[in-house]
Design brief:
By secondary structure, this protein is an alpha/beta fold. The chain has 8 helices and 8 strands.
């Protein structure tokens, strides 16, 4: 799977973009290049890249996030290290953008530098299991709101339809028509279909390209996980 220097993940609240961003950073690290992940989500204090800090550190991945992330003092402050990520073009960067238009506003200040370099992917994470993105029309409204807020166009789609740990292979397969409808309506290609790593073997050859995920440690339910990209 091809990649750009900067990969940005954005989508509706609860679409699963943070979990994908963490797993994607781990996958990128397998290339041998230096990787950093930046948490630009100033809206949701509960599902944060910081929850995977130990896993990322053990994989040699830099983490850029607010000093208040994951605390009861969580504040809408952007870490200054983001500018270093944009300026160091020898470094692969993954950016986790806040949900919907409100969260995407934080990205607007970095849009000129990202567009100037022009070596980025802006991936629209979609999930038909979420209340406000159950069909293509509603999903495209969210897409437009995010693009307007952050001043960056999406370049591809990531289908992450899931029901958490209750997701089955059939749920992923049923979501493919939804992802195709969104893709055809907006003219963007599908970058990948995501699935829980436990479903990967059952879905190989049926949902391509397929990207396996290990569920991130949650803010209120922390458990030890090993990503498939760490080995």
């Amino acid at each position: 799977m091809e990649h750009k220097r900067l990969t940005l993940f954005a989508g509706h609240y609860g679409s699963g973009k943070t979990n994908i961003a963490v797993n994607y950073a781990l996958w990128l690290r397998k290339t041998g290049d230096p990787v950093s992940i930046a948490d630009l989500d100033i809206v949701n204090p509960y599902f944060r890249t910081k929850d995977s800090e130990e896993m990322l550190r053990n994989a040699g991945i830099g983490l850029i996030c607010s000093e208040y992330a994951g605390t009861n003092l969580d504040a809408p402050a952007m870490p200054p290290e983001v500018y270093g990520l944009l300026e160091n073009r020898e470094l692969l960067g993954v950016m986790d953008i806040g949900g919907d238009d409100r969260g995407a506003l934080a990205l607007g200040r970095y849009a000129p530098a990202i567009l100037e370099e022009n070596d980025y992917e802006m991936l629209f994470v979609i999930n038909s299991a979420r209340p406000l993105t159950r069909n293509a029309a509603d999903t495209l409204e969210v897409k437009q709101e995010i693009e307007t807020a952050c001043h960056l166009p999406f370049t591809a789609i990531v289908n992450n339809t899931n029901l958490g740990t209750h997701t089955t292979a059939e749920d992923v397969l049923r979501s493919m028509d939804y992802a195709k409808a969104v893709s055809e309506a907006c003219g963007l290609p599908i970058k990948m279909h995501c699935c829980d790593a436990r479903l990967y073997a059952d879905l190989q050859g049926k949902a391509e390209p397929l990207f396996p995920l290990t569920l991130q440690r949650y803010y209120y339910h922390i458990q030890s996980e090993v990503s498939p990209w760490q080995n």
